[in-house]
Write a structure and sequence with these properties.
With 67 residues, the protein is of the alpha+beta class. The chain has one helix and two strands; from the N terminus they run E-H-E.
């Protein structure tokens, strides 16, 4: 029997980064979004927490062979 299992988890990642001093709140947000979107922040991200959301399974019907 073949079963497809789906697990849904919420993953919270955390990065400790340095940003230039003197930026406004809006500029800080844009700076972080730009670093994230460019992939530049990816090496700094560490999994901080994983919350289980749900699990489900579906039985896959396999075609019967004709003899």
């Amino acid at each position: 029997m073949k079963v497809v299992v789906q697990v849904v988890e919420k993953v919270i990642s955390e990065a400790h980064i340095y940003i230039p001093d003197g930026l406004t709140e809006s500029t800080i947000k844009q700076y972080i979004v730009d670093r994230y979107n460019s992939g530049e922040m990816t090496p700094d991200l560490n999994i901080f927490q994983v919350d289980f959301e749900s699990i489900s399974a579906t039985i896959v019907q396999q075609p019967q062979e004709v003899a």
